[in-house]
Every structure is written in structure tokens, then in C-alpha cells.
């Protein structure tokens, strides 16, 4: 690690700055563990630097981690601890637009909810699309946008047990799943690409992003997504 840091210094590619006022950073913590053999003798010492807010459960043949504690703290922070859980993060019938006639909401609180949920996507790819869709209206959020965000919180409140699972001895092969919705954005009619990259059976990369160009057909939207998926696969290799 120190060698990499020295390269950053030698190439002058970064500057050390002070933490901005009223901002916080993601803390880290060293986790130490002793591995015992069949005679209950320490055979190996393990050390892992983890980001705070993640619960990591390491077993003999697999690792599972989620952010259940972070979810509970976040739901309480925004006063939604008594909200009724829902089975999906977003309704298929919802149509989010820039409704100028709707009541405007506090943009500061709205952006705070965005940032909190974006951090959660580190272990919850199932909410990536919903969060990114709501984030498009952070400049001037309305009541409908806030209600959509509250539904995401209701969903994660009822699914705190979900997370990412990484088994031991998985095959080293890259598998990419990709999809798109044609003209899914009701504001500019652009499509959204969703890409999930697996190494063997382990999910290692995922994102949901609106396409920059306007696709005139479903086929074109799918081809644009496929191109992005190929780029991601080549980068992973």
C-alpha cells in the first residue's frame, strides 16, 4: 500500500486537503481474527480493514456482509422507523416528472436522503435503480419525489437481512447481465441501462445509469447497454 501511495506523490496526482466544514468521512476499523486448526491451535492470524457501517460475517467457506445496522440508524434519522414495510422499492405504475405545480420540498433534506441511500447501494444493488431515478430530481424535489423516496426506505426497513454473499472457491470467469428500459425517463424520454458483473457467482460490480443519447427504438437502447456491458467486462478482465 505504501508503494502505491508513494507513486501518487511522485506523479503529483492528488492534494491533501482539510475536511470541509459540517462534513463527515466514512470511518474504518481494523478487524482481527485467529483461525484455529482441528486441535484448537492458532494456525493463522487474519486482519481486515473494513468500512464502518458494514456487518461482515466470515465463515469457513463463505463471506456475507450487509448494512442492517446502518439501515436502522438511517430510518430513525429521517423519522421513518414507524413506516409500514413494502415488498418492492418502487411501484411499476409510478411516473416521476418535473411537475411545476406540485408542492416543493426541502432540497437539503432530499439530498441527504440521496447520499444516505447511495452509500447503502454498496451492499444493496437491488435499490440502485430506484435511488438513481429519484436522484434526478434533487435540484427541485416535489412531494411526489419525496413519497417515492419514502417507499425505498419502507422497502429497506423490511429487508434489513439482505446483503451480498461471496462463497469460497468460485470459478474465475466474467459473467455480465445487462438490460435497459426504452424511453423510461418521462422527462427527456431517454433510456436507462442496468449492468451487473459477476466473477463466477460473486457479484462484483453493478450500476444503473441513464443513457446519454436518445434511443429511437428498443433495439437501439439494448445495443447501447450491451456496448457498456462489454466495456465493463473488458475492464474487469
Largest sheet: 3 strands, antiparallel
The computed structural class is alpha+beta
**Strand residue percentage:** 15-25%
Topology, number of strands: 8
Outline, from the CA principal axes? globular
Q: How large, in whole angstroms, is the Cα Rg? A: 21 Å
Distance between the termini: 22 Å
The count of domains is 3
The helix/strand series, from N terminus to C terminus, equals HEEEEHHHHEEEEH
Q: Strands of the largest sheet, in order across it? A: 3-4-5
Poorly predicted spans: none
Helix content: 25-40%
What's the total helix number? 6
The average pLDDT is 89
Pfam family, one: RVT_2
Give a short overview:
Helices cover 32% and strands 24% of the residues. With 237 residues, the chain is of the alpha+beta class. A hairpin with a 5-residue loop joins strand 1 and strand 2.
Description of the structure:
The model has no long low-confidence stretch (mean pLDDT 89). The protein is an alpha+beta fold. The radius of gyration is 21 Å and the shape is globular. It folds into three domains: 64 residues, no CATH class; 90 residues, no CATH class; 67 residues, no CATH class.
Record keyword descriptors for this entry.
single chain; 237 residues; alpha+beta; three-stranded antiparallel β-sheet; 32% helix
Topology diagram in text:
Blueprint: H1 2-11, E1 28-36, E2 42-51, E3 55-58, E4 62-66, H2 68-77, H3 107-120, H4 128-135, H5 143-157, E5 164-167, E6 174-181, E7 192-199, E8 202-210, H6 218-236
Antiparallel strand pairs: 1-2, 3-4, 4-5, 6-7, 7-8
Domain Reverse transcriptase Ty1/copia-type: 11-56
Pfam family, one: RVT_2
InterPro entries: RVT_2 (IPR013103)
Amino acid at each position: 500500500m505504501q508503494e502505491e501511495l508513494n507513486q501518487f506523490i511522485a506523479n503529483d496526482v492528488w492534494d491533501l486537503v482539510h475536511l470541509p466544514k459540517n462534513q463527515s468521512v466514512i470511518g474504518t476499523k481494523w478487524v482481527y481474527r485467529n483461525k484455529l486448526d482441528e486441535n484448537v491451535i492458532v494456525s493463522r492470524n487474519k486482519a481486515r480493514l473494513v468500512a464502518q457501517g458494514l456487518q461482515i460475517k466470515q465463515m469457513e467457506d463463505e463471506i456475507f456482509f450487509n448494512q442492517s445496522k446502518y439501515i436502522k440508524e438511517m430510518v430513525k434519522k429521517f423519522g421513518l422507523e414507524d413506516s409500514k414495510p413494502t415488498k418492492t422499492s418502487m411501484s411499476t405504475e409510478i411516473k416521476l416528472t418535473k411537475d411545476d405545480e406540485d408542492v416543493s420540498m426541502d432540497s437539503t433534506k432530499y439530498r441527504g436522503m440521496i447520499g444516505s441511500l447511495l452509500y447503502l447501494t454498496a451492499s444493496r444493488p437491488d435499490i440502485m435503480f430506484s435511488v438513481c431515478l429519484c436522484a434526478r430530481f434533487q435540484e427541485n424535489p416535489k412531494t411526489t419525489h419525496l413519497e417515492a423516496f419514502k417507499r425505498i426506505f419502507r422497502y429497506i426497513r423490511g429487508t434489513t437481512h439482505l446483503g451480498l454473499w461471496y462463497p469460497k472457491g468460485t470459478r474465475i470467469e466474467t459473467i455480465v447481465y445487462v438490460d435497459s428500459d426504452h424511453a423510461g425517463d418521462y422527462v427527456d424520454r431517454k433510456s436507462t441501462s442496468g449492468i451487473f458483473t459477476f466473477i463466477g457467482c460473486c457479484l462484483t460490480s453493478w450500476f444503473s445509469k441513464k443513457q446519454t443519447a436518445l434511443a429511437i427504438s428498443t433495439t437501439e437502447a439494448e445495443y447501447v447497454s450491451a456496448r457498456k456491458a462489454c466495456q465493463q467486462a473488458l475492464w474487469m478482465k
